[in-house]
Amino acid sequence: MSAQMKLGAFLWATGHHIAAWRHPKAHARAGIDIDHYIQLARTAEAAKFDMIFCEDAAGLREANVDIASQTSRSIGFEPISLLSALAVHTNHIGLVSTASTSYNEPYGLARTFLSLDHLSGGRAGWNLVTSASQIEAANFGATGLKPHADRYERAREFAEVVTGLWQGKASGHDGQSFSVRDPLDLPRSPQGAPVMVQAGASDVGRDLAARTADVVFTAAQTFEEATAFYDDLKGRMAAYGREPDEIKIMPGVSPVVAETEAEAREKFEELQELIPDEVGVALLSSYLSISDLWRHPIDGPLPELPESEGMKSRQALVVEQSRRDGLSIRQIARHFAGARGHWRIVGTAAQVADELQARFEGGAADGFNVMPSYFPGELDAFATLVVPELQRRGLFRKAYEGTTLRDHLGLRRPS
Amino acid sequence: MHLAVSLDIASAPGQAGLTFGEIAAFVRKTETARIDMVVISDSSPDGERSTSPFEATTLVAALATVTEKVGLVANASTIAHQPYNLARRFASLDIISHGRAGWSATMTQAPHEAANFSCPDGFSDDDFRRRAQEYIGIVQGLWRGWDADALLFDKSGGRFHDPEKMHLLDHKGEFFSVRGPLNVARSPQDTPVLALSGLSEADFDIAARTADVILFDERPAEESRARHDDFKRRVSACGRKPDAVKVLTDLSLTTDRINGLADRLEEAFHSKNCDGFNILMPAQPSVFDDFADRVLPDLRRRGLFREDYRGTTLRSHLGLTGGGDR
Ligand SMILES: Cc1cc2nc3c(=O)[nH]c(=O)nc-3n(C[C@H](O)[C@H](O)[C@H](O)COP(=O)(O)O)c2cc1C
């Protein structure tokens, strides 16, 4: 485990809370305002975050157009162009974007991320996802979403080709899903190769991460879930000849922080009040991959769920939580809407720092992917309240140690 | 007349690529000179390998935030990207640049490019053309998926956008099937500018229907005029105004061609061979200084080139309204 924790600033639309955009202090126009993002990047860099992280989906998030129109997630910047713009307005912070192995080709993706890496002087990272949504699939052909196992088989080959290209591998590739004739025509990365990030949590997802990832994002609510995931993933690495500290595991955390605990609770309740029931239920049902959740009584329990080809791990998490706490659909929908199954802490800076410290020192995390409820307010709050507290405790850096994302994360340069 | 500058960042073998600072300084120079747009490509059409550290769309994203007026057009091939992804990238560039972005596509297949994109044999000319046509239709259709007034931001009413003003594409074609809509808002200039190059005559009708700008190679005067007339006739035949598409002719710039250049440009422009020129920058972009210092003032004195930008978007520089047919 590293001596100090790693921190990512997870930028998403108007905020991670589903009703974020409705908050009086949230910037609703985030998705069409580049200056807003430049400001967020500067805030995160001033707070010495390791990286900015952008999620991605090549399509709408929500199939129901009425529900979609009540959230801010249907429009936004395409993340690689966004981060390329941010690259020249920042000097230290890492820039990580998600991109799908299902709807790209390895040569193009490797080239694009390497260009971002050069623009930023070695600060780029790629979050590999296999894309679990039917909505995305419909933008790339008529055959629909491929089965989970097929997506991961393609992802494995994809990652192998990309890594080879970044390492300057000269010989051609001719495989099951891809063929690539030439090496990349861009010079080698300033940090050896862009950082590889993954967030898959299924069995095959974990194996792929254990084999190829430098950073792993995850959703874990309880300490037990987090340590179980941590130990499992690190345990898989030996099979691929890797040391446990070659991967930094960074669970998502959605803090709501204020000067006093009462203020933090009030702030959180204010957000929860802004969630329309139909939106919460729709969001939950899309993560559970069942389209008719709304047919079930909203104050009753979750119905039995069919095994999903989408997000197996996320589904298991939600189901387990609802059974554990005896929650109704409405309760779990609201609860889930706030942080999408991620870990939430509501409290003072000291309380948030206590919780992060306990997981960090207890072997549940190497760092955290911070998911502010709304922007810019909650990123500012984390930066000005929580970060100084972590620094006082010696848990987080006061200055960047190096210039590349690999430097910040304490990762070896690939040969 | 309209003036574009094409910068191929794929530098000569053995030569170090331009740094971001050098490229940004050059693009700012074109902005000071009130050039309509800079067209950036990252691989030479003859398949020469680049030694630049940058890919064109990511570079343009970065340039967009360090410039204010000049149009920024990135070359991106129909082989290297899926249409949905390309449409998103450029829609996003257009918002980052506040309406100054364009997509430059070539109708000529780059040798061996497809072999790096899991298509070892490439496409036949005919397939490539039909595929490109379908591709362009999808991209422009996706760019129009959101009405200009679709976003409401109504916090108290709880409506972020008007669902009636978001439109599915539902495209099912020979090569692609794309449902849409795009998850990027409408462009500040309606749609990003589409510039087509590498056209053979068989591509003229596709271009006449879809393009905003055509980049033609340099030909003898007579041939240029005939080609220009033929092309504009086809634009009219599609029900578009002839000046809805700007035809720019390539102009290779070397120091020894600067003398008398204003005369030659005036002659070509007045005999209606084109609507302007696309200045091809050699590996040494400093040649542009000679053009800006010695040729532009002359063109301005003759009333052939604007003193200043009239608007803020690339479409306004080019004197264009909304993009393509609809
Ligand atoms: C922090 C975090 C961020 C994620 N970001 C994305 C994303 O941007 N796009 C996406 O398609 N999936 C994203 N996912 C989903 C994962 O890639 C993965 O599909 C999911 O965790 C289910 O795992 P599995 O595919 O191995 O079953 C994210 C997951 C986490 C924990």
Describe what is shown at a glance.
By secondary structure, chain A is an alpha/beta fold. Helices cover 41% and strands 13% of the residues of chain A. With 326 residues, chain B is an alpha/beta fold.
CATH class identity of the largest domain in chain A: Alpha Beta
Instruction: Determine the number of helices of chain A (DSSP H or I, runs of at least 4 residues).
Output: 15
Low confidence ranges of chain B: none
Under CATH, the homologous superfamily of the largest domain in chain A reads: Luciferase-like domain
- Named CATH topology of chain B: TIM Barrel
What does the oligomeric state look like here? heterodimer
Rg of chain A over CA atoms, rounded to whole Å, is 20 Å
Strand content of chain A: 5-15%
Counting structural domains of chain A, the number is 2
Number of strands of chain A: 11
CATH-derived architecture of the largest domain in chain A: Alpha-Beta Barrel
Strand order of the largest sheet of chain B: 1-2-3-4-9-10-11-12
Give me the strand/helix succession of chain A. Answer: EHEHHEHEHHEEEHEHEHHHHEHEHH
The CATH class of chain B = Alpha Beta
For the record, give the distance between the C-alpha atoms at the N and C termini of chain A, rounded to a whole number: 23 Å
Count interface residues per chain for the largest interface.
A-B, 65 and 61 residues
At CATH level 3, the topology of the largest domain in chain A is: TIM Barrel
Mean pLDDT figure of chain A: 93
Q: Which structural category do the helix and sheet elements of chain B fall into? A: alpha/beta
Poorly predicted regions of chain A: none
Walk me through the structure.
The complex is a heterodimer of chains A (415) and B (326). With 415 residues, chain A is of the alpha/beta class. In chain A, 41% of the residues lie in helices and 13% in strands. Chain A contains 15 helices and eleven strands. Chain A has an eight-stranded parallel β-barrel, surrounded by eight helices. In chain A, strands 5-6 form a two-stranded antiparallel ribbon. In chain A, α4 links the parallel β3 and β4 (124-129). In chain A, α10 (277-287) packs across α12 and α13 packs across α14 (377-392). With 326 residues, chain B is of the alpha/beta class. Chain B has one domain (2-148, 187-318): TIM Barrel (Alpha-Beta Barrel). Chain B contains nine helices and twelve strands. The longest helix of chain B has 19 residues, at 125-143. Chain B is globular, with a radius of gyration of 20 Å. Chain B starts with a strand and ends in an 8-residue tail after the last helix. Chains A and B meet through α2, α3, α4 and β6 of A and α2, α3, β6 and β8 of B. Bound molecules: flavin mononucleotide.
